[in-house]
Amino acid sequence: MSKYHPLSEAEAIEIARSFAEVFPTGEELVSREIGDGNLNLVFHITQPATGRSLIVKQALPYVKIIGDSWPLSLDRARIEGEALIKQGELAPGLVPVVYRSDADMALTIMEDLSDHVIMRKGLIEGGVYPDFAEHLAEFLSRTLFFTSDLGMNQQDKKVQLGRFINPDLCKITEDFVLNFPYYDAESNNIEPYLRDAAEAVWRDEELLLEAAKLREKFLTHAQALLHGDLHTGSIFVTPASTKVIDPEFAYYGPMGFDIGAIVANLLLNYAGQEHWSPNEADRRDRRAYLLSTITELWTRFERKFRALWDAHGVDKRFDLPGYQDDYMKRLLQDTIGFAGAKALRRVYGLAQVADIATIPDREARERAQRLALAIARNLIVSNRSASSIEDVVRIAETAA
Ligand code: ADP
Ligand code: MG
Ligand code: MG
Ligand code: MG
Prior knowledge:
Layout (H helix, E strand, L loop, with lengths): L8 H9 L12 E4 L6 E8 L4 E8 L15 H16 L7 E5 L4 E4 L6 E2 H6 L7 H14 L8 H10 L3 H11 L17 H9 L1 H16 L3 E3 L8 E4 L2 E4 L6 E3 L1 H22 L3 H33 L10 H26 L5 H4 L4 H21 L7 H9 L2
Antiparallel strand pairs: 1-2, 2-3, 3-5, 4-5, 6-8, 7-10, 8-9
This protein binds adenosine-5'-diphosphate and magnesium ion (3 copies).
Family: Belongs to the methylthioribose kinase family.
Enzyme class: transferase
Function: Catalyzes the phosphorylation of methylthioribose into methylthioribose-1-phosphate.
């Protein structure tokens, strides 16, 4: 079982059976392929007699949606496994337990989190996650700090960086997030009624310049080991638990890209409340909850990150007065800029989000799209003058 081929359900069951710590008894196992993405198979293996289960995720060598015409390196499965294991060491309890990572077969065999809900779905259904900001602040502060030149041996970091070279997946971001939305690219998925809004972006020189600078930062700024795809579809939640999954885009990049991804997805749901809230009062409450989650996330992140720096900083040169404050300001600005970029591409790029795209009423959907686009634009153009997370709240509340 070491030469790569896509697994059948029977083979996935055979592999699962060897995990005696999960399935100590011999009763029958059943498999269901539950992947909802375009790049991977996800087998949910259960033992009905005992209620025990695990997940077998396998990378495919091509993008599923268009057959095998778009190849994608299987090395991302090794990267996903290594990233999950590292994240689990740095932020215990906030990622699934990995039972085995098999680079040859592009497999990650891990804890079944089916008792959680994917956060995007939970938010659409009006869920409230009181511990989410704390958990994500813990995850982000620890995974980013301890993989950066602030918090780890700087020569080891260069070696680590080499284990997370992820050109195919980075290119997806470089193209679909940081390039195609900014011109009339073929892959854009523009509803005819939004064409004017997309064309306005392509003429907006201030916006195009800032977006190009964000793209440069994503290409060049190997600041820390990122998750790389930290949208609300990559987070499993319950009111009391948070688990980050799916780090196949992991690479050494700018920290603000990960934090910004979460902010963007909370704001996309904010925009989607044009439809998901049944009335004005609920809409106001729901949006206040989403904005307070953003504020809490940043505030807690910043507090934790500074505390880690004070306790575990490895470079005395960075103890100069004012250095940490300036660093945190730049990190907030990156977060805001990337939040804008991550939100903008979801409005008319190839891959959209259910928070907006599934709104059945055309007019409500258009209002949500235009609102998301206005917020995204303002985040991008103002990112380098931002000084507080309150700037994000103000931009969301005043966008129209
Ligand atoms: P992709 O990279 O293809 O997006 P994901 O890792 O996001 O793959 O998994 C796709 C879906 O499979 C998730 O949305 C979730 O429904 C299910 N899934 C993935 N990992 C787990 C897990 N550990 N436990 C339960 N379900 C999972
Ligand atoms: Mg998916
Ligand atoms: Mg996913
Ligand atoms: Mg994925």
